[in-house]
Predict the structure.
Amino acid sequence: MKRLAELRESLVIALWFMFLTFPILVIQVNTIEKTIIWRWQNLLYVGIGSFALSFVWRYFIGKAAAGGRASGERAEEKTSILQRITADSRFSRSAILLTALIALAFPFLSSTYQVNIMTTALMYVVLGLGLNIVVGQAGLLHLGYVAFYAVGAYTYALLYQHFGIGFWTALPLGALMAMVFGLLLGFPVLRLRGDYLAIVTLGFGEITRIVLENWSEFSSGPSGISEIPRPGFFNLAMDLEESTIYLYFLMVGFVLFTIFVTNRLQNSRIGRAWLALREDEVACEAMGVNKTVAKMTAFALGSTWAGMMGVVFAAKTTFVNPASFTFLESAMILSIVVLGGMGSTLGVILASFLLILLPEYLRAFSDYRMLLFGTIMVVMMIFRPQGIITNIRRTYEYHFERKQNGAPDASV
Amino acid sequence: METILETKNLTMNFGGIKALDRVDLDVRQGEICALIGPNGAGKTTFFNCITGIYPPSEGDVFISPPAGKRKRINGLPVHRVTARGLARTFQNIRLFPDMTVLENVMVGRHCRTKAGVLGAIFRDRITRKEEKAVVTRSYAILERIGLADLANALARNLPYGDQRRLEIARALATEPFLLLLDEPAAGMNPRETEALEELILRIKTEEQISILMIEHDMRMVMSISDRIFVLDYGKKIAEGTAAEIWENPVVIKAYLGEEFDA
Ligand SMILES: Nc1ncnc2c1ncn2[C@@H]1O[C@H](COP(=O)(O)OP(=O)(O)O)[C@@H](O)[C@H]1O
Ligand SMILES: [Mg+2]
C-alpha cells in the first residue's frame, strides 16, 4: 500500500519535472534558420532521472526523520564527529599548529594569484564572523550587510581622493563610519522583527548601492574611484608580489584578531544577552535585558567589522565601484553564516573557505555555480539546518572550596 | 505589614474583550498570595500588565520595594520593571533552550551587572571579577533550587518539572522582592508538586521574597497561600484567606463548584 503511494508520488514528481523543464530542455529554437528542434529524448532523461532521484530523496528524508527522533532521546550522543574532534584538546592543538604552519608557508609556496584568492577567502572569513555577531549570535536577520562594507570601502576611497589619507588612518575611520551608519539605521529598524527586519535591511543595502551609483559628484558614480593605494609598511617600497604577500599576512592578522574578539564576546555578559535574545525575546526582556541596547550593540559591532573589511577591500583591489556591493554579496556572506552554523566560529571559517575557494578551483563548473549553490543551501536546510558545526556552549567548572572567611569561591 | 505591590482599577481591553476589569489587588511583604480563577479569567493578562508586557488600558500599578519608595510603574519597559524587583515565570515555559542551565541563570544576572563590550573584549580586572561573581552566584542559586548537578546540561534537555524550576531559578537571579509565578505546578506529578511547594516556602522564609502565584492545584494553593484572589471574566470576585475562599459561595459557584462539587 505504502509502496504504491510512493510510486504514484514519484510518478507525479517526474511528470511535473518533465512539464517544468519542457520549454528549456526540449524545445530548441534556432533563431537564424527559424526552425525548432524537438529534443524528445531529453524529456525521457528528465522523467527517468527525477523518478529515480525522488526515491533517493525520500530515503534520505526518512533517514533524517528517524535520526531526529532517535537523537531526541539520546541528546548527549548527538554531538557530531567534528565536534568531538574539536573538543579533544590534544587534537585541536596539533590542528591549530598545522594550520598556523600552512598559513605561514602558503604565500611562499604558491603563486601571487593563489595568494590573492586566499586573501579574498580570509576577507570573507572576517566578514562572516562579523555578520555572525548580528545573525548568529543576536539572531537579527540582516540582508544588507554589504552596505556597511561599501561604507568602509568608500570612506577610504574618498578620504584618499580628497585628503590623501592613507590606509592605516582610514582603517579606524572606515570602521567608525560604518558603525555610525549601523547605529543610524539600527535605531529606527531594530524594533522590527524577523522578516520585516530582513526586508528593511535588504532595502537599505540596495539604497546604498543606488545612491553610490547615481550621486556622481560624491562617489564618481558607476565608474568608481581608482588608484587607491595598497596598505603601506613604514614607507617601504614594495612590488606587486610583495604587497600581495603583505596583504595576505595582514588578513591573517585580521582573522586572528576577529576570532579573538568574537570569542571573547560570545562568553560575556553581552554575548549571553544576545543569545538569550535570539532564543526568546520576551523571556530575555523579562530577565532584565534591555532589548534595544543589546540589538544596537550587535548591529553596530557587526557593521564595524564590515567597515573595516571595506577599507581592506578598497586597498586590495585599489579600485571601488558600486558594482562590488550588490545584494549577491550580502547573500554570500549570509550563506557563509548559515552554512557554517549560526554562532559557531569554526563553522563560519570552514564555510567561507568552502564557498569562496571551491568556485575558484572549480572554474570548469562556473556555469553551474549558482545552481550548485542553491542546491547546497536547500539540502543543508533540510538535512542539517544547524549548519556544518553546531555551536557548543561553554561549560564552567567549579571548585568550591571554603576560604578562610567562609565564602564559596568559583574558579572560572 | 507593608504593601509591596498594589493595583488600582487595573483594566486591560483587547479590542472588545475586557480581559481585566477594574482589578484592585495588593500583596504585602512576606506573603504568599495566590491568584486563581477559571481558564481565560485574565490571570496571565494580569501578570503581563504589571510586568510591562502590555501597557494597561486603564488603572495604575504601584510598587513599594522593601528598601525604596512607592512608585507607579505602568508604562515602564519590561526590563526596567525587572530591574525594579519584579521577576516572573511563564505559563508556557520560556527558557533559553540552547543555552546551558547555568547560562540561563546567568542571563538573569544581567540587570544586576555592568560589563559592556569593551569589558568583554579586554577582560579587565573588574570584568573578570564581575564574571566570576556571576558564575558563583548563579551556581549557588542552582544549588539551592537543586539543579546544580545539571548546570552544564542544555536547558532543552531537562525534564519538564526541572524546566519549571529552572525558570524560578532564573527569576531569582534577578534579585526580586516579589516573585510572580504563572502556574508553576502545571504538568508536575504529585511528588514534584510537593517539592515545589517546599521550594516556594523556602524562598519566602529564607530569602524574604514575597510571592504572587497563579495556580490551579487547589491543594497547593489552599495549603501555602496567606491570601487568595479570585478572578472571573476579568473581575475580582473575591479575596481572603484560604478558609474564607473555600467557603465563599460566589467562588464556589464561579469556579470551585465545577471541579470539586463543594
Ligand atoms: N494578546 C491578546 N490579544 C487578545 N486577547 C487576549 C490576549 N491575551 C489574552 N487575551 C484574552 O484575554 C482573556 C484572558 O486570558 P488569560 O489572561 O491568558 O487567561 P488565564 O486566566 O487563563 O491566564 C482571554 O479571553 C484571552 O483570549
Ligand atoms: Mg494563564
